[in-house]
Amino acid sequence: MAEKKKMSVAEMLAAARKADGGDGASSAEPAEAPPAEAAAEPTQAKSPEPKSGNPAPAKAADGGRMSVAEMLAAARGGGGGAAAAKPAEKKPAPKPAAEKAKPVAAKKQAEASPSEPRDTASILAAAKKSSKAGPTSKAEAAAKEKADPVPKAKPQIVVPPMPAKPAYAKGKAAAKPKEPADETRRGFLNMGFWLLTAVGALWSLATLKFMFPNVRREPPSKFKVGFPDAFPSGQVQTKFKAQFGVWVVNTEVNGHPEIFALKSVCTHLGCTPNWLEAEQKFKCPCHGSGFYKDGINFEGPAPRPLERYAIRVADDGQIEIDKSQTFQEEMGQWEEPSSFIPV
Amino acid sequence: MHGLSELQFQDLVSSFLGPYYIALALMNGLAALYLWRSGQTKAWFNLPGSIGGKRVAITNVVVWLLVAMVFAVLAAIAGSGNTSIASLPEWLREAINNSTGPVVYSVGSSAVLIILYLFRGFFVRPAIAWAIWNLMWLFLGLSMTDPDFYDIVAKPDNVPIVMLVFLLAFFTWLATYRAVINDERIANGEPPLEKLDDEKILVWPDLVYTELICMIALTAFLIFWAIALPAPLEEAASSVKTPNPSKAPWYFLGLQEMLVYYDPWMAGVVLPSMIVAGLMAIPYLDFNKKGNGYYTIKERQFSYIVFQFGFLEMWITLIVLGTLLRGPNWNFFGPYEHWDAHKVEALNNVNLSEYVWQRGLNMSLPGALSFSDMPWIPLPAWLTAFLNPFLQFFSLLFGRELPGTLLVLGYFIALPPVMALTVFRGFYQRMGFIRFMIMANLLLFMASLPIKMVLRWVFQLKYLIAIPEFFFNF
């Protein structure tokens, strides 16, 4: 095998088939066998497929199928498989390990099929089943450990005893127990509650600031709309709505004919209602609030009547509307003389 | 359609419906092919006779193939311009228009959801679900030939809502299907489906690659969508001209619908904040450890019902209502009704205090108290000036608005203990006082919305507590 050449999938499968089929030659010279074999060693006890009547413990390794992950690992090694196999062979450990595995293997012998060519899908399926791909949880690892009586074939690294810790290093190193997932989730939500509070506080502060703008640019609040006889009885004059946001209405309120200026802002949520001439009502397009011609709310969610602006007949006889002052019906302010012009 | 003659509209619709029905035919054909190839053929009916000694059965494959053929025929009919044949009959559309209203819509959708929930074992069966799925598409296709329906549904703004209905139907079916299977398995002492195949996969590369592919596919889809359905450009904004109807973004239409029934302060600030805080409180309130990592309904019945009520009923159906059925002046329009800005609907609404004092007791509304009416109280003028608003407010709250105040206080104060003693006894014992009270109040707030809607429909009730003088309405 080339040193740095990666295996193609086909090569890997071929190797797997070879291992699976229990090629006698490969078992004789395990060191030269494809990386599959060397990598197969740790799994041999779990999924052996020995040939019947072959007593050599190494044979058990031949039948050992690899997991996909192992195959990939071996392939990534780029021929390192063969190199890796050598130290494994040199070690004394694998042999007794294999021997121990033998009874297990023998038990499974009955179900294990004799060597014959297999199709790719079954090999992959078997490889997937025999051992989990990817990381395993602690519980799974423990279960695997239990099921697998073979000691690990890795060389034991002898670590010289550490010198005693000096006094200043002690005490600090108390390892924190790892929080279970549930706790961290609550911690996250906890943080969320604090964030909500913080955002609420910031929002309140910003609202407070909003109350005191740096610059106020407003059109003059007083304007003249014409002589009173331009507003015939029963009419809602809508032509000032676009520029000034006001309807000038001439109608009867509680039996008294009056001219007054209604503010064109819905008392529910501040949309601009429309005057519907056919239905003789103001109707808000946002949530369906409706108001009579005199501004009294009667349908939809609006909680109170439309507001009035201050209105008066100026010295030149024209009607003057003052937007700086509003009059609310529910406060009894529609009685005030500056909220209407009697006709 | 505005500005389109009858013929132009027919051309437009038939050019859409032809490919639409072909796609549906393909969908059913592929389903039949899949069932056949994967060996899931099932005999549904046996034909009476026999051919060559063999009994002939109508299998599911045959049925879906026939459905595909029906769609293919419809594609030919509708695609060739004969839209009048491939549409719902006029009388049916009229009947649907006349019978729908906010009440029928809301009560009907609740009833349908309850039926689907109760008989979920039947409705999640793949054949039944597939039939419903086909009927939904067929209904949409047959309705498209109505100009008023087409006008609303094909509006670029509303297309995602139509997609949402179908996607939600699919995903709700998927989750319920798995939950029903799991519930059966758990009842038989077997582990749930998700435990059978819990092979862990790697974040890199498996998950990250999947996410990358999804990202690219979604981006491609959005680009296609943006080209096919251009976003509408409307006139310049003006503070004195509100579009009619004026609609919130689609995901807020549930809130906008709430605003029809509640004061803006309640529906715009208090209830939305409670939704956010309540959702965040769920992990603290939930004591049921089951259902972690697998679909189940029986093991988490309470959580499931509460969630689906809040999501499907209070959120999704209201979004659909707000998008497709609310027209000019926020009036309700039937699905095949023309959006007439001058539709007159009598919506006279009355406050509870007016009901009680004026209609019940035949007297005028009690007014607010004021210190100026009570000169015998020996308080300095500056103090009475300061205290006057408070006196006014509370005298209104417990005077004029007493009936509503009692009702609301009773609802939020008296009901939780009653719940703890009766239906939620087990919950109270397991949750303790504080957790139970929080949960009970969140539940009551959620329930207050449909209650208020029903009161509005049945009694034309505007507000239980109406103190517009202080902007306090409930």
UniProtKB/TrEMBL annotation, chain A:
Coiled coil: none annotated. CDD domains: Rieske (cd03467). This is Cytochrome b6-f complex iron-sulfur subunit. PROSITE patterns: RIESKE. One of its GO terms (molecular function) is 2 iron, 2 sulfur cluster binding. PANTHER family: CYTOCHROME B-C1 COMPLEX SUBUNIT RIESKE, MITOCHONDRIAL. Residues 14-181 are annotated as: Disordered. Its cofactor is [2Fe-2S] cluster. Pfam families: Rieske (PF00355). GO terms for cellular component: membrane. The gene is petC_3. Residues 253-320 form the Rieske domain. The lineage of its organism: Bacteria, Pseudomonadati, Planctomycetota, Planctomycetia, Pirellulales. The chain crosses the membrane at residues 193-212. It comes from Bythopirellula polymerisocia. Keywords: 2Fe-2S, Disulfide bond, Iron, Iron-sulfur, Membrane, Metal-binding, Transmembrane, Transmembrane helix. Residues 87-102, 141-151 have a biased composition (Basic and acidic residues). Residues 25-42, 121-140, 165-174 have a biased composition (Low complexity).
UniProtKB/TrEMBL annotation, chain B:
InterPro entries: Cyt_b/b6_C, Cyt_b/b6_C_sf, Cytb/b6-like_sf. Residues 237-312 form the Cytochrome b/b6 C-terminal region profile domain. It is a multi-pass membrane protein. SUPFAM superfamilies: a domain/subunit of cytochrome bc1 complex (Ubiquinol-cytochrome c reductase) (SSF81648). Pfam families: Cytochrom_B_C (PF00032). The chain crosses the membrane at residues 20-36, 57-79, 99-119, 126-144, 159-180, 201-228, 265-285, 305-325, 379-399, 406-427, 433-455. One of its GO terms (cellular component) is membrane. Keywords: Electron transport, Heme, Iron, Membrane, Metal-binding, Transmembrane, Transmembrane helix, Transport. It is found in: Membrane. GO terms for molecular function: electron transfer activity; metal ion binding; oxidoreductase activity. This is Cytochrome b/b6 C-terminal region profile domain-containing protein.
